[in-house]
Amino acid sequence: MAGKLCNMASRIMGGSSLVGRSLSSSSLHFRSGMGLPVGKHIVPDKPLPVNDELIWDNGTPFPEPCIDRIASTVGKYEALAWMCGGLGFFAGLALLAVWNDKASKIPFTPKVYPYDNLRVELGGEP
Length: 126
Known about the structure:
Order of helices and strands: HHEEHHH
Helix content: 40-55%
Number of helices: 5
Structural class: mainly alpha
Largest sheet: 2 strands, antiparallel
Radius of gyration: 35 Å
Oligomer: single chain
């Protein structure tokens, strides 16, 4: 089955299998004729305008700014409150993890000995 598919593909690509393989391998270098992923690379032939690095021009008719502008509905102090609330939540979570850290209280696994954990041998009542 694979041989039939290979022969059919080679006939479509260029006739013989050797030519078909060479055409298919060279066409992969050009992204199947689709071009670059972000449009043409334009080499500037004159000085760039001021703040040109702040515009993302990917070849579309509508270039967009690189720095997203925050919506006018979020104020400066509201954004500060959200940031402090999020950082406070993670700080509280870290403090809870430190407070509830059982590994630091018992850094090793308690060993269990025979004969009632060697109670008499360690000086306990018989």
